[in-house]
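Entry for calcium ion complex. Fields follow.
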Amino acid sequence: MDNNIRVLIIEDEDKMRELMKIAFKKESFETFEAVDGKQGLTMFKSNPVDIVVLDVMLPEIDGWTVCREIRRNSNVPIILLTARGEEFDKLFGFELGADDYIVKPFSPKELVARIKALLRRADNRNNDTASNLELGDITINRLSREVTIDNQIVNLTNKEYELLYFLATNPKIVFNREQLLLKVWGYEQYGDPRTVDTHIKKLREKLGEHSNYISTIWGVGYKLEVPK
Ligand code: CA
């Protein structure tokens, strides 16, 4: 991981931005700041950043919309900031493509740790030398994160991709939902196994005729195997 990590903070509270800026400066992160969703999107489009820290409750354009907009053409890691007691739907956040979330008030140290963890994951993906992973009729390109079946592109969300990728790199192994949450979403405390089921369901739909590559082991979990 290089030291010139560029972080975009999209947060309307001056105090919060200030806190984060101080923490990031200690890490020698380069910080970009936006005070509302609209400015955040503009800044995202004009500055190459490595990670986005995104407040959910924002003036102009809310954090959900910003998240969805960014995901239209970027896989940049996104961490959502949410206030304690705020109505917050984790599932919704992941559906929109967020990679992680943290509840305010949080320690800047923890945020930095999470940022580093996410960047390490992104880094590992980029460092894989062989770009294509072949799986029967399914091809996964690790560099472009493109999935194709018989040369037809399968449009996957960020997490659907990561779930497929994880299962594909560990074929024939049965994982329970908690393990998948931990491996794909990264943190145990997410804890809602429905997230996994929803993503498996979507993934199967998108794999169409090849949905049988992913099997449900009743009472245990899921595995991926190329059918004979
Ligand atoms: Ca806010």
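NOTE: DSSP finds eight helices and eleven strands in the chain.
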